Amino acid sequence: MLLKRELFVAHFYVCYNKKAMKKKDYQERPWLKYYEEGDMRPNLEYPDCSMVDMVLQSAEKWPDNMAYSYFGHKVTYKNFVKKIEKTAKALKNYGVKEGDRVTICMPNTPESITMVYAVNMIGAVCNMVHPLSSEKELEYYIKVSDSKYVLVIDAVFDKIYKCRDTANLERIIVVRPSDGLGFLKKKLYRVLHVKKVKLPTNDSRVVLWEDFIANSYFYQGNYYEKRGADDLAVILYSGGTTGTPKGIMLNNLSFNALGLGAIEVIKPCVPGATILSILPIFHGFGLGVCIHIPLCGGMGCVLVPAFSKKQFADLIRKNEPTFIVGVPTLFEALLETKLKENELECVKAVVCGGDALNQTLRNKVNDFLKAHGSTAVIRVGYGLTEATAATCLSPERACDEGIIGAPLPDNYFKIIKPDTFKECAVGEEGEICINGPSVMMGYLNNDAETAQTLRVHDDGKVWLHTGDIGVLKKDGFIYFAQRLKRMIISSGYNVYPTQLETVINSHEAVLTSTVIGIDHPYKGQVPKAFIVLKPGYKAGKRIEREIRELLERNVPIYALPTAYEFRDKLPTTLVGKVAFKKLEEEEKEKKK
Questions:
Q1: What residue numbers bound the domain in which 141 lies?
Q2: Rounded mean pLDDT of the chain?
Q3: Which of 137, 200, 339, 346 is 20 to 30 A from 440 via CA?
């Protein structure tokens, strides 16, 4: 067992930013009135500790609370800590040292979250990668992080194994999806569902999870390394929509500040609450919001390794979650879910992030929640992986179009004129910049990109340039306008796809849409709309004419799409966002 004096380094607090609420704060942070009205603290003190220390604190306070459930198999905080300690011992027994990088190539399973905190416990670093990445991508992620150890789900073991020599891997730990189930469920699962993956029998570098854990009994030394807030904890990767994906380095403070900040501003964040952990652990939104926030506050994670909208209703009925968190496509799936009256009565908070939420979808989700017994309204979060996925959240009952609301505690936002450090006037659109404890340390092995993204302004502070367009309005809240990289410049005019998508989606026949810019011989680019209709509607000239007329009534003439294409579905990225880059590539191929 860990010594008491080592167990809770969280007793030693450091304050990230101890600014008092002075008059000057109201000038810099006009959203502070929202904090006062809600009896919330805009500045917090954060423990000088690691991510796992926050989980240990939760286990000390609420040992019998559920930490997670996996297909109905529930594990308490007390037992979760035991699993973390066993895994930490096993890592040490296999030679993993403080500062080493351990690649986690997993969906949301008990082994993946246990490994995250075990790696953190021994002072090593988690290198989080998507299991569906290509072989070349996986090799790159392992090499660039200098990772010698990999935890991988058996379904994609072959891809990892093929790069074992070029990546100089020392150990590959293989997990079966059934490993985290109870004994009887595990046996039944293996008989009915699992297609056995053949593993090499003569390669000592490959070990099954159960054998890996069994080796923990042979380790007798220290397995807890005291780490501080500023120490590197996790490497996540950008989506790679342009060029090579970049490794984003996040420290312990980034995740702990997110956890404590969210608990401060989301009132249903109380011990014993539960969250549907659908968003994947290899994404900042999934690891930060769906795993670490609840584990900081004695809440329970319902682990969902592979989401299916057909099983959405059963998932809600069986688990009765307090929170539903997701990207817009998840809430589109919710609208198609068949639920009885009051079956959402358990839901106290709903948060959407990861992509822009159009007003039409927001209204439909709120109506759906109310019709099925929930008192919650959908709140919109804003963030990016470079800022630990979430930095801003819309207030309860604030449903104005585009609102992302008030920054989380200790996060400072400013809106600047693009390519300058000059701050925009209230009501003027510009690039969103962020300063706060959640901001990344920098890009892995990429000083040039880091210098472009993290910049010291005239105030002497380091600001994260998000590449997103937003506006600070007179009500004191931040509003999101558009991803800067999606902005279409047509004949010198700025056209924002989100604006067009909101209008198109308001048509009664439209399920969803995406607008991209396509090349034009003299305008530079012009908008093209890709549209998915609801079941029962058929694409044709009549609907296209109605949508065009709707746009003509709501947007400037220079912003009107020059082409419309109806599809059965739109391509999505690995984390469920609409892959507008793929649509752009398809259009370029047509021109060749």
A1: 50-393
A2: 89
A3: 137
